[in-house]
Amino acid sequence: MSVYPDASDKPMVSGPRPRLPGSFRLAWPAFLKNAVPDILLPAAFAVAVLVLWELSVRLFDVPAFVLPGPLQFLSVLANRFDAIAGMAMQTVRSTIIGFAAGVTVGLTIGGLIGSSRSLYDMINPTLIGFNAIPSVALIPLFVVWFGVGPHVAVLTSAMVCFFPVTVIVATAIAASSPELDDVLRSLGARKIDVLLKVSIPRAMPQFFGSIKIAITGAFIGTIVAETVAANSGIGYVMVVATNNMDVPLAFAGLIVLSAMGVFFYIASRIIETRLTGWAYRRE
Amino acid sequence: MSTLVDLDRVSLTYGEGRRDSTPALAETSLRISEGEFVAVVGPSGCGKSSLLKLVSGLHRASSGNVIVAEREVTEPIKIVGMAFQNANLLPWRSTLRNVMLPVEIVEPHRSRFRRERQAYVERARSLLHTVGLAGFEERLPWQLSGGMQQRTSLCRALIHEPALLLLDEPFAALDAFTREELWSVLQLLWMEKRFTVILVTHDLREALYLADTIYVMSARPGRILVRHEVGLDRPRTLASTYEPAFVDALATLRGHISDARGNGAHS
Hints:
The structure holds two protein chains of two kinds.
Chain A: H1 28-59, H2 70-79, H3 81-114, H4 117-131, H5 139-146, H6 150-174, H7 178-186, H8 191-229, H9 234-243, H10 247-275
Chain B: E1 3-14, E2 22-33, E3 37-41, H1 48-56, E4 63-68, E5 71-72, E6 80-83, H2 95-105, H3 109-113, H4 117-130, H5 146-158, E7 164-168, H6 176-193, E8 196-200, H7 204-210, E9 213-217, E10 224-229, H8 244-260
Parallel strand pairs in B: 3-8, 3-9, 6-7, 7-8
Antiparallel strand pairs in B: 1-2, 1-4, 4-5, 9-10
């Protein structure tokens, strides 16, 4: 039996559920209409910058060891693609392994600290103190302890990821809503119930905020470690190239780094919207 | 009818023994029968919400006895459902899954939930249907209006079929029309299932519309000043609120509240 089938308080959103990201509009006219502002204009701008760059370099006769033109470093990239790709893969590997390790440990420890008030009060100040140390400052110590190699890059990116994730997750989990807690307590909820059903899902948006900080940081950490203490990876390529005054190669390295950075950012965005779509109101 | 809730000279002081301790309730006694619909009204800050916390076992009394279902309350009791002024829904769960939250947690439903999931889904759907939310099961809370969120919150409070429903100003944040609609929804649910209700409110019309018995509390620290039995027939409707008996009762109650606030002037 329904009392008010035509309840006068209408939902704020009616009609079909909002479109989830990842589903594409395929209707041809809409696609065409959006293609100009969404794709063509940004692409045209990027090409214009490169063309202007190339022209300036040629017009003012800038030597290649100061600033190479795009044609020059792109051809270096094409000619030495296999070698550069191998180095790039090493950088990606170090970044992802370090990132995964740092986030996993950070999430676990942050979750533990956040779910106990006294633990949180006790540990958080120390954690913030450690967090204040730029993790790349630890690279020389890692070299002393573990020697030179790709593991330094992995350790550095893991350290960079660990602190923001831990601090942010701990704070997010520790946040509570008193009335909801009353509801749960009166149901006889165990601590683990509250953690799994309420605290962790509620902390997800902040967690993904920290993930975006972490992935950027992991990438920077890896590159810095590779320039200081490695014999492979794009960071190493950059050092070798500039030592040999091979500036076009250094720029080829920069292009690869830019592509990788964009890749990491997009990947984390996609995972974020998949898992925490509820936190973002959409039309 | 047998007594479900028995408060015997119960006092509650927050921060007992400290210099800044606040007395919330003083020497409060009341007795609620099974299936009775009770409303508690009083000036703001008079300890109405504290009363609910004592009954549910979320707080322990400083002195006196709280007995629910013939047992002294010493820890949170599991036969209660609760709803507050804020719906407190989990924003990542659909309406249906928000309603299901209690049966995933409270025994004995918790152990049955996995095997009899479909039965529980059906129960939740039929509850949502009763409050006028059929067709909204898969919506997320932000896609619902305030009134719909509050209906969902009511369903969540009732899904595990608690013997005692505790409502802390559940309709206070809603507009007048939605509020009156939800009075009718709540009355209907209650007449169908006959659980016991303690409704804390500052809306005297709401109390008169819904309750069998109204307790008027004094300003802090709260004591019960008046016990008012509402003799109006059920089901009550908005039309009943304009009948002379209702209007007279309203005037009487308003007088009690003015006294409770400590000013003799009846406004």
